[in-house]
Design goal:
This protein is an alpha+beta fold. It has seven helices and four strands; from the N terminus they run E-E-E-E-H-H-H-H-H-H-H.
Length: 172
């Protein structure tokens, strides 16, 4: 949370938290810090969206997580996010791996150089996240990267890659 200048917004008697981000490309967004092994990701693009979801949860006596979007919102400035990720990959600090992984979930899969760097990184969770983004936003141009993921030695990357290839195949 240091990299993003995170401020915890809630404590719903769980070990999952919504965090307001004050630095980096996600400044002003809300990250959901998940304890059960799922990747943490930005769930709301703004504090206003978070507060609206909190109001709806309170009014309907539901969990705030019930009002998370079904997919992580894409970052509003893909070029800035791409530059940020390239810089983190250049530094290659293990302490930043969770930051990179969470940022991939807001990445539109269009920067082929960045996607190749992420897919070939030693931290295989990056390749898994890239394959997941391709499955969500498939295009024929992404087939080579999806194929690389589907041939990955780690089963969870391979499965995500298979899903990405299948999503591309469904395009026609």
């Amino acid at each position: 949370m240091r990299a993003y200048g995170g401020i915890v917004l809630d404590d719903g008697n769980t070990s999952d938290h919504h965090v307001y981000l004050t630095r980096g490309p996600f400044a002003g967004a809300i990250l959901f810090l998940c304890h059960d092994g799922d990747a943490s990701s930005v769930v709301f693009a703004s504090l206003a969206e978070f507060l609206d979801a909190a109001r709806q949860a309170r009014e309907s006596d539901a969990w705030l997580t019930d009002f998370h979007p079904s997919t992580t919102p894409l970052h509003r400035d893909q070029a800035a996010l791409g530059s940020y990720l390239h810089a983190l990959l250049d530094i290659d600090n293990e302490d930043d791996e969770a930051v990179v992984e969470s940022a991939i979930l807001s990445l539109a899969p269009v920067d082929m150089d960045l996607l190749m760097r992420l897919t070939g990184h030693r931290h295989f969770f990056y390749a898994e996240a890239v394959a997941g983004q391709i499955a969500l936003y498939p295009t024929a141009a992404l087939r080579p990267i999806a194929q690389l993921c589907s041939e990955h030695p780690m089963p969870q990357v391979k499965w995500a890659g298979d899903s990405a290839v299948a999503a591309i195949d469904q395009l026609g």
